[in-house]
Design brief:
By secondary structure, the chain is α/β, with parallel strands linked by helices. It has 25 helices and 13 strands. The two termini are 17 Å apart.
């Protein structure tokens, strides 16, 4: 036997882990060795840069992209045959994002997520298997089950969708003054289905190689979704589309391409049938955009510009640099310094023609607002959301993401008014690869760094960790100081929000980043730093607010179970003299743990192992 499954999983999910899926997983399993090598190489690059105090740089133009026969110079010149954008991806003005299930939910309850998505009016919906999907119990498998039922138009799904359509229209009648769904059955066929697989850095919780080594979550997601749904999608004239996350290098992109080709071969699909967007959420990616596009050439259709994950990657990549200090998180918008330059490189990369004269798509970033709150708060937030969409459309994005179905009809009119299906092929200056380009990708600009900013980072990081451990990997959050204030809206957040917040806190403490403003109550003056003692005081105060919060903001049943564990993880991460690469590692390690002492043991084991060997503990310890 090549693979083994957690006890009871095959009998609980015979419709998901079918014999056909199991055969595909076994066929693709040998590729996991290269994935592990890539993760070793990734860790080695990170360590070497820190030891040499060396920033990320552009690749040697004469070198060959590992896993391909394409040189870097050829990739940059567009000397490759890219994919043709299929009809159902040419107009993707608004893509919604979110999982196809909920924690601890039966199929009827969980599948409501799919109904909201497919009835939303979004041009596409990225059903998330990664940052927004909880991993408690069997949520990753529930995600696949619900999508399979929905795409097959199972009677259960249709019954749920009809009821959800009435609910959505009631909300729209109150908010817009008119319904948003005329024919719910017809509406279900409007939205293109996309699936975000888990990244290379994650292991599956229910499958492992025979004998014990953990198995790639990327392979598990790619194979399970394709085997279960490719025939259904193709019979309906739909494309089979994935979002690929957390790629750092063109070599990693080439591994994904090899995996896609092997999956297509196994399913007797023509090479290039599967299409992929790549999320640009890692600093190193921005140095290799054309190389990544070339490595994935037969499958690649576009890039997406994320915000939180990208900020986190910049912070992590420069953890060694004592002079690199991010400001308050709310000041790091897409027009800030290094973010502005990263976005500009993405739009120039997708609009570089390939050998066939083809261009790719740029899907803009996330709109996290939800129109729920006071009239004043909602009106102000919606104005900001529309202004953000208008900016991205002007800059060349062919569409953007929203984190909630209620935002679709608020933001989509920006692209309706523009009228173009997409902006592929719009003229921008050619990409350049000089020292000034590299410097621009880590450019800091003057901005505030304050005690309230630290409180925001800490409060939301702990809240997110608590939500994650409860199974809510996508959660509506805001800092505790705004609980009860409906003028300040909740934002839909996923794993990236926790990652960046702890990264910046680690950065401020260990690099002694000067605060720009004082705090009279705490006796802090401008120029003071976030010392460990000040951090501990803020931790005590913010944690006390969470314990005192209403269950609406912090579930009461979490306050003696997962909330203390989230606090312990945040404290250990920020205090560690060696920066952990991923907050998610420590959260995954403690899924299903509700005793603080047990969690503290796992946290200590992870940090000690990583500090001693550079290895991350990523397997399911409770397999």
């Amino acid at each position: 036997m090549v693979l083994e499954y957690r006890k009871g999983i095959l009998s609980q999910y015979p419709d998901v882990l079918t014999p056909q899926v199991q055969r595909a997983l076994e066929t693709l399993a040998p590729l996991d060795a290269r994935r592990r090598d890539l993760m070793t190489e990734r860790a080695a690059r990170r360590k070497a840069r820190a030891q040499r105090r060396e920033p990320i740089g552009f690749l040697d133009p004469a070198s060959t992209i590992p896993g391909t026969s394409i040189t870097v110079a050829e990739a940059r010149a567009g000397s490759f045959d890219g994919a043709e954008i299929p009809a159902d991806l040419r107009r993707q003005w608004i893509q919604g994002t979110g999982p196809a299930t909920k924690p601890h939910a039966d199929p009827r309850s969980g599948i409501r997520n799919v109904a909201y998505a497919l009835l939303s009016g979004a041009d596409g919906w990225m059903f998330d298997g990664e940052d927004a999907l909880g991993q408690v119990e069997t949520m990753s498998l529930d995600n696949h089950r619900n999508l399979k039922l929905a795409l097959a138009r199972d009677p259960l799904f249709l019954d749920v969708a009809e009821g959800v359509s009435h609910e959505m229209n009631r909300w729209a009648q109150g908010f817009f003054g008119h319904p948003i769904i005329e024919d719910w059955r017809k509406q279900l066929d409007f939205t293109t289905v996309l699936y975000r697989a888990r990244g290379l850095h994650l292991d599956d919780r229910h499958i492992r190689h025979a004998g014990g080594p953990a198995f790639s979550a990327s392979i598990a997601d790619l194979a399970t979704f394709a085997v279960n749904n490719a025939a259904t999608l193709r019979a309906a004239g739909r494309s089979l589309v994935y979002y690929l996350p957390k790629i750092q290098t063109a070599a990693e992109a080439a591994w994904w391409n090899t995996l896609l080709l092997a999956l297509e071969d196994h399913l007797d699909l023509r090479a290039g049938t599967i299409k992929v967007y790549v999320l640009v959420e890692q600093l190193e990616q921005s140095f290799q955009l054309m190389e990544i596009r070339a490595a994935l050439a037969p499958h690649f259709v576009g890039f997406n510009t994320g915000r939180w994950d990208y900020i986190n990657s910049v912070s992590d990549a420069l953890a060694w640099d004592p002079a690199f200090h991010n400001p308050n998180i709310d000041t790091i918008t897409m027009t800030y310094g290094y973010m502005r330059n990263y976005e500009d490189r993405v739009r120039r990369a997708v609009n570089t023609p390939d050998r066939l004269g083809r261009h790719a798509l740029w899907q803009g970033g996330m709109e996290p607002n939800i129109p729920v709150g006071s009239d004043v708060g909602v009106a102000a937030s919606m104005r900001r959301a529309v202004a953000g969409a208008e900016r991205e459309q002007r800059e060349g994005a062919s569409g953007k993401w929203v984190a909630h179905w209620k935002m679709v009809h608020i933001v989509r009119p920006v692209w309706e008014k523009a009228g173009q299906d997409n902006q592929a092929g719009r003229s921008f200056p050619a990409l350049t690869y000089g020292p000034e380009d590299a410097a621009g990708l880590t450019l800091l600009e003057p901005a505030s760094r304050t005690v309230p900013g630290a409180r925001d980072l800490l409060s939301v990081a702990i809240q997110y960790g608590n939500a994650f451990l409860q199974g809510l990997q996508a959660a509506a959050l805001k800092p505790a100081d705004h609980f009860g204030n409906d003028d300040v809206l909740y934002l839909m957040e996923d794993m990236a929000t926790g990652e960046i917040r702890l990264s910046i806190l680690w950065e401020w403490i260990h690099k002694k980043a000067p605060l720009t403003d004082g705090d009279e109550i705490l006796g802090v003056r401008p120029g003071d730093t976030l010392t460990p003692a000040l951090f501990n005081r803020l931790l005590e105060e913010e944690y006390a607010k969470l314990l005192a919060a209403r269950s609406k903001d912090v579930h009461d049943d979490s306050k003696t179970t997962t909330l203390p564990i989230a606090r312990a993880i945040a404290w250990a991460y920020v205090q560690s003299d060696v920066k952990p690469p991923w907050y998610v590692d420590l959260l995954n390690l403690n899924l299903g743990v509700d005793k603080l002492e047990a969690a503290q043991g796992r946290i200590a084991r992870f940090l000690e192992t990583f500090k001693a060997t550079g290895e991350r503990i990523t397997e399911n310890l409770d397999f």
